[in-house]
Design goal:
There is one protein chain. By secondary structure, the chain is α/β, with parallel strands linked by helices. It is built from 14 helices and 6 strands. Helix 5 runs parallel beside helix 10. It starts with 8 loop residues before the first helix and ends with a helix.
Length: 288
């Protein structure tokens, strides 16, 4: 492996830019690990662990039972292949079973942390779960954890979280007195949008969070969260500012969508739209 000490300043800068473009934002381990060497070692261990053919299977092909012997002598390819991933349908069933078995938010958090059926978990550093006061009757749901959420291990960290705090304060709310969470508990690599299969697997967990918290009103932040609960494909500008009823565990919960704080950091001109949505949310929670 090439050491960074062997690189010029220009080559090092180019390497850092390459990692940044690929979505790499921090090092997981203190020391570099040669994954190629690890993979070769695993393959060598599998070859050495393969069972030797029995004496009767080593008879020459000219013997009467040669075809059967050749068939028995065939390499055990199936046994050496890596275990396949859990099929999406099976993973959804496992997620639903784990979610329904939780009777409290604490139990649900433990269930999610122990769930390994979603590939997003294997690339994320943290499992992001709801934080705040579950008895408030007010729930704010974001689209998916970002890089700073994943690093800090809590929803709405960093600059987007700071802006959200200001948005909530403007209508008399504080994050410690409401329930904050994300639609998906693990950050997608490079902040990409979660696939339909990934969302199907994660859906039982967010729906169970809502069922256990029993909010009186929900504020959805961002395009993805609005699409998940409203079942539509429009962009956030077409979904925001409209009260809808979403069905959770046999009950309807009023929900309204607005722009995500990250959207507002990118396009501050849209803050006036979000302000109108926040005023509508304030009026609703004051009336219930």
């Amino acid at each position: 492996m090439i050491s960074v000490n062997d690189l010029s300043s220009g080559e090092l800068a180019a390497l850092l830019h390459f990692h940044a473009d690929a979505g790499v934002e921090w090092l997981i381990e203190e020391e570099p690990v040669d994954r190629f060497a690890e993979f070769e070692a695993i393959k060598a261990a599998r070859r050495s662990a393969a069972p030797a053919p029995r004496a009767e299977e080593s008879r020459p092909a000219s013997s009467p039972s040669a075809p059967a012997a050749q068939q028995r002598h065939a390499p055990p390819e199936t046994a050496q292949r890596p275990q396949p991933a859990i099929p999406d349908g099976e993973a959804v069933q496992q997620a639903r079973f784990a979610a329904e078995g939780a009777r409290t938010l604490s139990e649900l958090r433990t269930a999610i942390e122990g769930f390994n059926g979603c590939n997003l978990k294997h690339s994320a550093r943290s499992t992001i779960f709801a934080s705040g006061d579950s008895s408030s009757g007010i729930m704010v749901i974001g689209s998916a954890p970002g890089a700073e959420d994943d690093r800090e291990g809590q929803p709405f960290a960093g600059r987007p979280g700071q802006l959200l705090d200001k948005m909530l304060a403007a209508i008399g709310l504080d994050r410690s007195r409401i329930l904050l969470t994300q639609v998906i508990p693990w950050r997608p690599p490079g902040n990409r949008i979660a696939s339909a299969a990934e969302m199907d697997i994660c859906r039982p967990f967010i729906e169970r969070q809502i069922a256990l918290a029993e909010p009186k009103a929900i504020l959805l932040l961002g395009n993805f969260a609005a699409r998940v609960f409203f079942g539509e494909s429009e962009m956030i500008h077409g979904l925001r500012g409209q009260w809808r009823e979403i069905g959770i565990d046999g009950r309807s919960v009023p929900a309204i969508a607005t722009l995500h704080p990250q959207d507002l950091l990118t396009a501050p001109i849209n803050k006036r739209l979000a302000w109108n949505d926040l005023l509508a949310f304030q009026a609703k929670i004051s009336a219930v």
